């Protein structure tokens, strides 16, 4: 019996491991990647590309290499605990070479449409229409894996900032931020205390005249490094810790963790103390 054909949309982190898993199962995968390279979110570009996630030059991942690596391909020992995006791309290329994945990827190919084939009721197959160099092509697959990520479209709620139309300064989404050079000597307010907001505020503080970090309801700031210099997730996301947490009341677990976080710096002292535990 012929191997089942699988279409994989996107050659980022999810697409690469999906491709490898399909090969392990004896399937016949074809990966469609609209750009000319692998990596998805983690491939840095000076200019944001339409329809693709965008990162800034200094991005370092928030997950330790022990936690983020593919289970069948450990990250090299000499790579840092928390990797710059260039090291993540290096790791992806090593992974793709090790398992010979690139020969299954069609670069420069966009997926225009995925629809049920006419005989879907009996076969469960899908019709996938792709476009490359201005030419469209239709193929039938037994399954489709959508590995396009979820950081593509910027959420910029301008209606939430009345008076912005008369603001004489410059505003942008973190998706369009690349480096601090353009902000030298300027006053900047960063809205939001997510990973990108905190990263960018810290980086701008070295070049801007003054930086304000705006948060609606405060936040608990988790540090990458825990006791003894070990990665935070490596130390606290373990079966042992999960068993202890399951035995303790939630209020006790929160109390212990909040004391630990406030030992680094008092959140209320910096106006970051949130109402939530």
TrEMBL record:
Keywords: Endoplasmic reticulum, FAD, Flavoprotein, Lipid metabolism, Membrane, Methylation, Microsome, Monooxygenase, NADP, Oxidoreductase, Phosphoprotein, Transmembrane, Transmembrane helix. Its main location: endoplasmic reticulum. GO terms for cellular component: endoplasmic reticulum membrane. GO terms for molecular function: flavin adenine dinucleotide binding; hypotaurine monooxygenase activity; N,N-dimethylaniline monooxygenase activity; NAD(P)H oxidase H2O2-forming activity; NADP binding; trimethylamine monooxygenase activity. It is found in: Endoplasmic reticulum membrane; Microsome membrane. It catalyses: heptan-4-one + NADPH + O2 + H(+) = propyl butanoate + NADP(+) + H2O; octan-3-one + NADPH + O2 + H(+) = ethyl hexanoate + NADP(+) + H2O; sulcatone + NADPH + O2 + H(+) = 4-methylpent-3-en-1-yl acetate + NADP(+) + H2O; hypotaurine + NADH + O2 + H(+) = taurine + NAD(+) + H2O. Broad spectrum monooxygenase that catalyzes the oxygenation of a wide variety of nitrogen- and sulfur-containing compounds including xenobiotics. Catalyzes the S-oxygenation of hypotaurine to produce taurine, an organic osmolyte involved in cell volume regulation as well as a variety of cytoprotective and developmental processes. Acts as a Baeyer-Villiger monooxygenase on a broad range of substrates. Catalyzes the insertion of an oxygen atom into a carbon-carbon bond adjacent to a carbonyl, which converts ketones to esters. Active on diverse carbonyl compounds, whereas soft nucleophiles are mostly non- or poorly reactive. In contrast with other forms of FMO it is non- or poorly active on 'classical' substrates such as drugs, pesticides, and dietary components containing soft nucleophilic heteroatoms. Able to oxidize drug molecules bearing a carbonyl group on an aliphatic chain, such as nabumetone and pentoxifylline. This is Flavin-containing monooxygenase. Its EC number is 1.-.-.-. GO terms for biological process: lipid metabolic process. Belongs to the FMO family. The keyword Oxidoreductase applies. It is an enzyme of class 1 (oxidoreductase). InterPro entries: FAD/NAD-bd_sf, Flavin_mOase, Flavin_mOase-like, Flavin_mOase_5, FMO-like. It is a single-pass membrane protein. The lineage of its organism: Eukaryota, Metazoa, Chordata, Craniata, Vertebrata. It comes from Anas platyrhynchos platyrhynchos. Pfam families: FMO-like (PF00743). Its cofactor is FAD.
